[in-house]
Write a structure and sequence with these properties.
Layout: H1 8-11, H2 24-29, H3 42-54, H4 60-75, H5 78-92, H6 96-110, H7 114-123, H8 141-144
Length: 147
């Protein structure tokens, strides 16, 4: 057994309130999640409750964007949510320069028409946003043998 401090996976997150136990303000803020709230893991509920606590201090534009993203998130299947979390983790592990490249590609993609975005999704190119790109060609066999 490891001697280090326990991780959150070992400790776990204490039970979080059910939907019926939320305040009126929390329910209003978290309304897009109402249908799935009681099925969420405690750690996920805790995260959303933290967001709901910060919500009143957000600008109207930030609140609108949060509500929009929450509705999109609530519409995802559990498998789609897991893939989104994995993509987010992968993105956060990229070097800063590559993160910037991915952000630029994402902005360009969002600037396309819906028809063009659909064509790209169907071609499979959109799934390669996080694939590392090499700016320098691989060394030739002769170059790789140099000291």
């Amino acid at each position: 057994m490891a001697d280090g401090p326990p991780t959150t996976a070992v400790i776990g997150t204490p039970p979080q309130p059910s939907w019926n136990q939320l305040s009126a303000q929390q329910k209003a803020t978290l309304a897009p999640l109402a249908g799935s709230w009681d099925q969420l893991e405690h750690i996920r509920r805790k995260k959303w409750l933290g967001i709901a606590e910060r919500y009143p201090s957000m600008s109207p534009d930030e609140q609108r964007r949060l509500q929009e993203r929450m509705r999109e998130w609530a519409a995802l299947t559990p498998d789609q949510r897991a893939r989104a979390r994995d993509s987010y983790k992968d993105f956060n592990q990229l070097p800063a320069a590559q993160k910037q490249t991915v952000k630029q590609k994402w902005e360009a993609y969002n600037g396309l028409s819906e028809t063009e975005r659909q064509r790209i999704r169907e071609s499979g190119k959109s799934s390669r946003l996080l694939t590392p790109t090499t700016d320098t060609p691989a060394p030739t066999p002769a170059e790789s043998q140099k000291p």
